[in-house]
Amino acid sequence: MIFCKRVTFLKSIFFYLCLSMPNLVSVSSSVTPEFGKTHFIVGLDHAQYLNIKKNSKKVSAKSGSSRANSGTKVFFSPDDGLQKKLIDLIDKELESIKIAIYILTDLDIAHALVRAKKRGVEIQIIVEPSQMKEKHSKINLLQDNGILVFEYDPDYIKGRQSTIMHHKFVIFGTAESEDGLVWTGSFNFTQAANHRNQENAVLITDIDAIAQFLAHYEKLKKRCRNCAIG
């Protein structure tokens, strides 16, 4: 008699769990990635629980979480036409362009900068000293059109071996975003970099990263030995 009662009781519990299972599994649509660290779901084995976590991360990514929207775009040459992308950004800019570039021999990019200057965009450029004399350099063209040029001083720290200004970045004031944009990567402003070399460019719209580039740009200007205005 007692045994029968126990069997009946166990059957009741099993029946209740079966009825509750759909509701328990349905929480997968709202469970957060942290769920399971301090809680567990009755009736789910480990594999089912991991699947719920995986699905919840997919939902977060689709809804625009900070991890999914990192504020960067990445391009490569020669596949993605980096020269055109950079010129498009220059042509869109309405406020300011600050450049630190190792080599600038691309005439089309130089012309885009001159156009920007003529429509009132404030432009500054920091260059490696070799670009002041290199015969294919377009720095003289920029100076002749009133663009402010800073020449990096490789001996800015006295008593230390000379250094090079190897940066390749542009800080845009308003292009693509009212908070600005940074273009950076391995891409020098040359035809070879655009058409032949394996290069990369990264576009950054993260506000904190832009602020860091701006701060470093001001530091770089203090490491220049002169500035020249055309």
Overview features:
230 residues; alpha+beta; Endonuclease, Chain A; eight-stranded mixed beta sheet; 39% helix; 20% strand
Physical arrangement of strands within the biggest beta sheet:
1-7-6-5-2-3-4-8
- SSE pattern: HHEHEHEHEEEHEHE
What is the CATH H-level superfamily of the largest domain?
Endonuclease Chain A
- Helix % is 25-40%
Q: Note poorly predicted spans.
A: 22-29, 37-41, 57-69
The major pleated sheet works out as: 8 strands, mixed
Q: What's the architecture of the largest domain in CATH terms?
A: 2-Layer Sandwich
How much beta, percentage-wise? 15-25%
Q: Under the CATH scheme, which class of the largest domain?
A: Alpha Beta
Q: What is the tally of beta strands?
A: 8
Structural class: alpha+beta
Report the mean per-residue pLDDT as an integer: 81
The domain tally reads 2
Count of separate DSSP helical elements: 7
Write the layout of secondary structure elements.
Elements (H helix, E strand, L loop, with lengths): L1 H24 L20 H17 L9 E6 L4 H11 L3 E6 L5 H12 L3 E6 L11 H6 L3 E5 L15 E5 L8 E5 L5 H5 L3 E6 L2 H15 L2 E6 L1
Parallel strand pairs: 2-3, 3-4
Antiparallel strand pairs: 1-7, 2-5, 4-8, 5-6, 6-7
Helix pairs in contact: 3-4
